From TrEMBL:
It comes from the Bacteria. The lineage of its organism: Bacteria, Bacillati, Bacillota, Bacilli, Bacillales. It holds the Pfam family Acyl-CoA_dh_N. It comes from Fictibacillus barbaricus. Transmembrane segments: none annotated. Residues 129-221 form the Acyl-CoA oxidase/dehydrogenase middle domain. This is Alkylation response protein AidB-like acyl-CoA dehydrogenase. Belongs to the acyl-CoA dehydrogenase family. The keyword Oxidoreductase applies.
Amino acid sequence: MTYLYEPYIKTKIQRRWFEKMDYLAEKFSERADHFDREGRFPFENVNDLKKAGYLSLTIPKEFGGEGLSLYEFVLLQERIAAGDAATALCIGWHLGSFLELSEERTWDDTALRHLCEKVVQNQALVNRAATEPATGSPTRGGMPQTKATVDGTDWIINGTKTFTSMAPALDYAIVSAQIDDTGKKGNFLINMSQDGVKIEETWDTVAMRGTRSDDLIMENVRVGSEALVEEERGKSGLPKAWLLHIPACYLGVAIAARNEAVQFAKTYKPNSLPGPIGDVPEVQRKIGEMELELFKARELIYSVAAKWVNEPESRMEMGPSLLAVKHVATNSAAKVVDLAMRIVGARSLAMSSPLQRHYRDVRAGLHNPPMDDMVISSLAQRALNTKGD
């Protein structure tokens, strides 16, 4: 099924990395059901990605990484997700964080270099920890309840973070916290092996079970002054293009479901028909609808990613476009999976069918940021605030 990706592979570097991930994604697909049933973190998959050097994909070349762009990031994440969605979503947070840091350079260069070197040399795994029970998604702008208090030259961190993907495997977390009573917030780099850091196993969902997005608990975690790696920025920051890894992941799920349904349509021959069900006009209509949904969503995500890379002067105005990609892609992905299940029928509900896992996993995309209501509101505000000719 690599022909599905051929239109989007533009360079030799992209092809080289795609072939690596294509091979690994096939291995991941064989393990996906096992991790899902057990609700276990896919350590084996992540180890394979470490051996392939994938954790350094978006780290700048000056710090020893591969220095690949948003476009390559989206392409490779989509392919991995077609093998195992939970693995793709997990590693996407790690890679996306470094893509954002490398493009915005809001950290001190020394701090960023040190963290990048830990990834390049030691295969350290990193994720942001921002979501909290009281604030919901950090994209809503709520002030974190996690608090950082000055104690001499150190900071004392207390708080709870939810949805901390890769929790059992993380080496470092970039934790958002209130800075004392200043009304400001900052990001602190926390070593997960420090005293006072613990994981509470709260992840008990029907979707993306392998992400192990458990709670991160911090009780009187003492860190040095250098742990404050970033203070609150104003509204001038770039749009979060790295979040395109989210729609890329769910399009990967949709592609996997599409492939399953098309193969079934080609090979299933009930004795009531002279040939396979793929000859039935209604089945062909559903396949055509899947193809159309994937085409429009993938054309959108790859064109926006390419514009981000090729037109850096336009980035500040690309926020609504990035939001639109997520809305279109995740909703199209859900529709594709639904159509795939209608083609396969009741067999798609069997626990032995990967389609039931795709059905559960794809729904998670509707709850990943940015939410649909925020996207629609943002587009409406842009239209209303734009002066006519």
